[in-house]
Amino acid sequence: MSNPRRPGNRLLHGKTLRMPIKYLFTRKAYGRRCRHRALRGLAALCLGALVVPAARDSAQARTQENLAIATPFEVGESPSGNYLAALVAGAEHDTVAAATFFREALRFDPRNPNLIERAFIAAVSNGNMQDAFSLADRLIVHDPNNSLARLTLGIKAIKAKRFAAARAYFAKGGTSQQRDITATLLTAWTYAGSGDTSRALSLVDKLRGENFGVFRDFHAALIADAANDQKEALKRMKAAYAADKNTLRLVDAYARFLIRHGNRDEAIAAYEAFDQILPNHPIVTAALANIKAGKPVEPLVKDAQEGAAEVLYGLGAAGGQQGDEIAAMIYLRLALYLTPHNSLAIITLGDLCERVKQNEQAIDVYGLVPENDPLRTTADIQTGQILEALERPDEASKYLNKIVDENPKNEDALSALGNLQRAHKHYAEAIETYSRALAGKSKPEKTDWPIYYFRGISYEREKRWPEAEADLMQALALYPDQPLVLNYLGYSWVDQNMNLDEGFNMLRRAVELRPTDGYIVDSLGWANYKLGRNDEAVKQLERAIDLKPSDPVINDHLGDAYWRAGRKLEAHFQWNHARDLDPEPEDKVKILHKIEHGLDDEPNPAAAEADPKKNGG
């Protein structure tokens, strides 16, 4: 059976194939150039990705045990020490400490514009909005045209229904505001809030260009709908939907509009069409159930406050997809200030926290999803996976088991639990859990490939190769050319000296698809090594080392290949390096033995048994 060190076994041991935070809004609707100009320079402020959830309203937040454990710290008496501590904390993404230390530094130097700006950005990123508003007022005294400060104060004015004041803030935030999607749309919503729908629509229509088309029509439809202009709203909504049927938020708004105006069948068709793109999304599933039960459906956006929040949420979701985490977090915090119960904004913000490794804060953010919201279970699953990432496996197991008990047919919850069991080598339990996730399906669906893949890995680890092979082949049938499946199945065949031509072709194809994946390149190199093709093995394994220089398994593999190629001094170097990279305990024992004794002089059994005419070469 296959070598337990195979890279394929390491690829997906952790928090794997998490529920995708996608289709929240489309990148096509607005590109990189559409972002608020004030946010482009935030990275230069040395704050890191400062995100700390605002204090929870216990009546709104889900009742649950406090799973996030913050690291304690103390502020010092030295202003310069607090300032340096703030910089270090920001660089390390310790957001609570960074915000606290900046606030302390500012207390000793309250007129310092640089400190005011840093403390302000920390506050708004953290969701500490009252602090942010106070600091924004102080900041524009020193920098009257600071776009981010004016944006923040404008959002405060919108919530207070001071629409003229909000427009004034947005108008002074820089030049060429008509070309700035943020200022343009927010200003349009202030006109809508003032009852001037015609002027609001006229302003939205000034957004020209292919990148703006969907976003323009989407917000024009929302503005017209909020003003009860059904004809204009339907025209704009249909235009947006025709241009992009792959965006959940747009589909949801369109279907809600249809059902509210008597087009029940069309609404169901829109949801079901999206279900073909991303099956079983909780929002779509809940919406279809509500429609069929005859429950009333609310519009996605009812007024200017919710419309402005929708602008900010859409830009935050897009910025997060494009890697602008700080800007995205600021947009999402402002959106949640206006609409605290927007579960998609909460989920998106939690995902951003995870991406910048602010796991404790992410747990708190996910806890803000209301108990009765369709995305509550999604938030719980993410929380369970974070506990595993925090190396709290017992808590993660208990938490995910509880979710499965409460949602015994939830495929995402079962998959998450199965992944946790597999990561901790509880393969028999993982097989059972994955099987439960697949139970009740009349036939496999394309989106089921990860479950078959993971169950196949678990079967292989349990030395039940026929079942493993069947699952891996099923995964590949559902998703042809999936590089992870090609890697695992191809290596397994080569490792067992079976289907050599097809196995090598799979590995080569996997490398073509993922040429910069060191683990997959390592699989191809190690397969060559197993068949005694030492020169080719060395070539591929050296390439894998370039891609993953700190992986102990790949270093160990290259050491073995060097030894077989007669390069024994280099082999010892690689083994010593592998030893120092904290390998698995069972691997370390073997590595130490090789360092002391080398490899035996016998050829690899697989190479001796392989028919050279069927060696894939």
Comma- or semicolon-separated keywords:
31 helices; 617 residues; disordered N terminus; Serine Threonine Protein Phosphatase 5, Tetratricopeptide repeat; mainly alpha; globular
Structural shape: globular
Gyration radius, rounded: 28 Å
What is the mean predicted local confidence, pLDDT? 85
- For the secondary structure, the number of strands is 0
CATH superfamily of the domain at 486-617: Tetratricopeptide repeat domain
Q: Class of the domain at 486-617 in CATH?
A: Mainly Alpha
The proportion of residues in beta strands is under 5%
CATH architectural label of the domain at 486-617 = Alpha Horseshoe
Kindly report how far apart the N and C termini lie: 22 Å
